[in-house]
Amino acid sequence: MEEAAGQAEEAGLASLLDRSQTQRYTGGFNPESWEQEFDKIPMFMKKSPAEIDPEENPDLACLQSIIFDEDQSPEEQANTYKNEGNEYFKEKNYKKAVISYTEGLKKKCSDQDLNAVLYTNRAAAQFYLGNYRSALSDVNAARKLKPNHLKAIIRGALCHLELKNFPEAMAWCEEGLRIDSKEKKLVETRAKADRLKRAEQRDARKAKLKEKKEQSQKEVLLTAIKERNIKLFLEASKEEDEISDVLAEMSLNGLSSDSTTGTKVYLDDNGNLNWPVLFLYPEYGQTDFISAFHEDSRFIDHIQVMFAELPPWDSERKYHPSNLELYFEDEAREEMYQLNTENTLLQVLQHQRYFVKSGTPAFLVLVKHSPFSKNYFFGKKVHRLK
């Protein structure tokens, strides 16, 4: 009898082994989508449960029903979310911590101390995410529930410190120290806020003194320009009292105030004006720049230095000092004025038809009797200065 039973069991095992070798297992992952299927297993999920629709994942719904049992009281559910958030916080996963604390607050439990902790903890997570204003909003909410909540006060002081609200940071520290006069974090934060506030005030005083000094220098400079009867070209929208603003924009190319050099006209120690001057060579599209052209210097003196050697772009070798003529253009009248190279810069700037544009006098340099010059002057009236 026993022998017959043993034979039947062996036959059954043999039959099972035969079927396992001929039948394919159908409960495994799909080779094409195994990663997505693996990610649906709660233990191995990469997303926060709060980001997943439980209806699409019954396993998750089952697990959540155990952890966050709807039969639990709001206080119990809020506390569970708080603990979950704390775990995320320990892992420095602050975004998920914020989500968990927020879910806890949504339970609107009647335990105000627990709600204050949820707000304070969420503030801490927001703080480490760099969301200082959101963190500050949370600590204010926590203190409405629990005014003497020391952790909330500490976090609020730190938020104000990061936002550079130094007086407010100190005020929060003072309030916290009235609760616990030996709280190290508050003592340190108050000292740091006080130090930074003093530095900020010192920098503000320095900036104000610098601005006042610069404004005084501008006024002196403007007076010197007016005394010499030099005219500054202003846009139609500018008034006479805005001339000082124009002086502040004087730059290298005479066109904008964002030049890397920021070269401007200035008064030297002897009370003489030194101007940035631009020379234009329209025939070749070239320019030269003199950063400090003394008002009593002659044009010929600069020309001889500039063309002591012929420039590489002068392919015809014709830009010799004796071959050059200098002009400025009266755009309003479409007329040209030829300079006497023996003139000083001041003599030219004092001409009744010369206007300094953007703080940088500019002059055209052309070759005498050249085809380009004849074509350039075609249709224009040319005056010669004495």
From TrEMBL:
Q: What GO molecular function terms would the record report?
A: Hsp70 protein binding; Hsp90 protein binding
Naming one, the record's GO cellular component terms include: nucleus
Its keywords, alphabetically, are: Coiled coil, Repeat, TPR repeat
**Gene Ontology annotations of biological process type:** defense response to virus; innate immune response; protein folding
* Coiled coil residues, start to end: 179-219
Stretches of Low complexity bias are at: 1-12
- One Pfam family name is Wheel
Enumerate the residue ranges of region (Disordered). Answer: 1-36
Every Cns1/TTC4 wheel domain range: 268-370
Concerning SUPFAM superfamilies, the annotation shows: TPR-like (SSF48452)
Q: Which InterPro entries match?
A: Csn1/TTC4_wheel (IPR044059), TPR-like_helical_dom_sf (IPR011990), TPR_rpt (IPR019734)
Is Ligase there in the keyword field?
no
User: TPR repeats span which residues?
Assistant: 116-149
Per the record's keyword annotation, is Thylakoid included, yes or no?
no
Q: Which family does it belong to?
A: Belongs to the TTC4 family.
Protein name, UniProt field = Tetratricopeptide repeat domain 4
